[in-house]
Amino acid sequence: MILSIKVKNFLLVESASLEFAPGLNVLTGETGAGKSLLLRAISYALGERIDWDVFGEERATIELVLRIPGEQRRVVEEYGIEMEDDLLIIRRVIEGKKRRSRIYANDTLVVARTINDIARNIIEIQGQYDTYRLFDEDYHLELLDRFAKSRVFTDEYQTGIIDKFARNQDLMEEYRELYRKWMELRRKLGELVESEQKYIQELDYLRYQLEELEKANLREGEEEELSRKLEYLSRIEQIRSVLEATRLLYEGENSPYDVISAVLRDMEELSSLDEFAQLYERLSAVRDELKDIALSLPEVEMPEENLDEIQERLFFLSRLKKKYGKSISELIKYMGELRRRIEELESAPVNREKLERELEGVRKKLEELAESISRRRREAARRFESMVMEHLGELALEDAVFRVNFVETELSPWGKEKVNFLFSSSPKFPPRPLKKVASGGELSRLALAIKLIMAGEESPSVLIFDEIDTGIGGETAIRVGKKLKSLSDYYQLIVITHLPQIASSAHRHFVVRKSGARTSIGMVEGRERVREIARMLSGVISEDSMRAAQELLNENASEI
């Protein structure tokens, strides 16, 4: 709800401060007075792109105070804007000389898109020169689904509104959930197919690596063992020479062993003497040690591999380690990893077949649900058309034709079709898309008809109508005024009008007056309001027009 708006140095308006009522607010004034200035100020406050050519050098400010519905506060706070008492104060400063503007939301500097996101579900403007939301075919489908009571929105606040009256939201919930699953399966399958060639190349490469490493017959400790054998073979002659020399200490002619044995025989008779007893024992021990050493000497054994074979194997292992950047122990572990990865890649075709079967099953279910949703929509569309036509007839568009057109599409989050609204002002011409045939006045009345049908079921809480009364008068104008008052039970309305029948239905009345080059806007009540209604009735203020104006106001007041 818009609580108030203040403008300063805004185009022709030097200063204005307006407080709006919760129900029907009207804005009237003579032709050319600048009634649409207020609508433009609201649009600019909500982030609309500025037409710099119409601004002078003075700094203009617009301050719009909104009361944000409780379910909408989440959207505001998600942008980091602090809320207090559900109030959102939007202030836009426009510097025409510098062609620069800034927007503040509760004193927080924000970009225009932020305000657009916040306001688009609160305020809806139906103006003759706006880009009408009714031109948006996605919005057509949204309206129809709301009317068919089959649409469920992802936003919590919208879901809450629909939950109040929806009878079959479970069907759309199931469809949307299944659609998300279908899209995820399609993504996975796409990735699998796209990377299939990559998998084949990787599989070939891994198989090559595994084959190479398996042929290498790697085993723990082999490198160390081969290094020892290499050293042994490279010094075999020295080993033989040392062993032979050691053996001669025991076996050779006049060997140390024989010499010591002879000495011991000569010394045996002296061993009873203390001086020789200890020497005899030590020489005996030396002789016995020489014998043990000689008898325990190993034989020279040649390894199964020759020197060239060992060197070649060590070189091969060294090259393998360098190629893979791993030790022999790490390469043995790596072979296990290769086997697991190869097994995983070899199972990919099986996974693809399983994925394709699952995807087809989900698609069939989606088709069934989409068909059910479509049947409900088409049934609802016929009733929707009938109700719109009925309201249009009461809004001086008796000859108008309105149709809901279905265009089949691929499966989407909303089903298998798009919806667009077709309109013709006369049965003589075939109905065509709104943006090609509807005038501003016709479009405003069509919007009003739809709002009357959807009253209480849509999220915007503020509706602004400009030029809704184009081309009507008399009894039709009275009916339009009553319909607007009826609609104000569900929305706050701000209506720019030149019809006294509509103005007299308002809960609050504002008048735009032009004096010289300046425009003023203010609320009127009591006798001031009677004078304005009288002016609208006859163009002049007289006793008769004042009396007629009072009667019109009294008649509308009695219906409140």
What does this structure look like?
- A hairpin with a 2-residue loop joins β6 (100-105) and β7.
- The protein has helices spanning 36-45, 73-78, 112-119, 137-148, 156-163, 169-194, 196-215, 222-234, 236-251, 256-267, 274-296, 307-324, 328-346, 348-394, 434-437, 440-454, 474-487, 500-503, 527-538, 543-558, and strands spanning 2-10, 13-19, 24-29, 59-67, 87-95, 100-105, 108-110, 123-126, 401-412, 415-424, 432-433, 462-466, 492-496, 508-515, 518-524.
- α7 packs antiparallel against α13, α9 packs across α11 and α14 (348-394) packs across α16.
- It has 560 residues and is an alpha/beta fold.
- It starts with a strand and ends with a helix.
- Strands 2-1-4-5-6-7 form a 6-stranded antiparallel beta sheet. A 6-stranded mixed beta sheet has the order 8-12-13-3-14-15.
- Mean pLDDT is 81; it is low at 128-132 and 149-168.
Q: Could you outline the blueprint of secondary structure elements for this entry?
A:
Blueprint lengths: L1 E9 L2 E7 L4 E6 L6 H10 L13 E9 L5 H6 L8 E9 L4 E6 L2 E3 L1 H8 L3 E4 L10 H12 L7 H8 L5 H26 L1 H20 L6 H13 L1 H16 L4 H12 L6 H23 L10 H18 L3 H19 L1 H47 L6 E12 L2 E10 L7 E2 H4 L2 H15 L7 E5 L7 H14 L4 E5 L3 H4 L4 E8 L2 E7 L2 H12 L4 H16 L2
Parallel strand pairs: 3-13, 3-14, 8-12, 12-13
Antiparallel strand pairs: 1-2, 1-4, 4-5, 5-6, 6-7, 9-10, 10-11, 14-15
Give a concise summary.
The chain is α/β, with parallel strands linked by helices and about 550 residues long. It contains 20 helices and 15 strands.
